[in-house]
Amino acid sequence: MAYTINTRPSKKGLAFDLYFRWKGVRYRPLLGYDLTKEQAEEAAIAMMAKIQRNEQQITPRQVSPFFKDFLPLYWQTIRVKKRFDLARPQSIIETHLLPRFGERPLDSLTAEDGLAYITARLGEKAAHWTIRREWNVLMRILNLAVDFDKLDKNRLKRVELPDVATRERVATTEELKAIKLKAEERRAKVMQANQYDPAELWRIVTVALNTGLREAKILEIDRTWMRKRDDGWWLILPPARSRLKQTPREIPLTPAAHAALRGEIAHVDGRIFRRWTPAAFSVFWKRLVVEAKVIDLHFHDLRHTFATWLQNLGVPLEVRAALLGHRLRGMGQDQLGGESMTAAYSHGGYGWDQQLRAAVSLLHNALLSYELSYGSPIEELEENVRVANSLERREKVWWSQRDSNPCLSLERAPS
Question: What pLDDT sits at residue 266?
Answer without folding.
Answer: 52
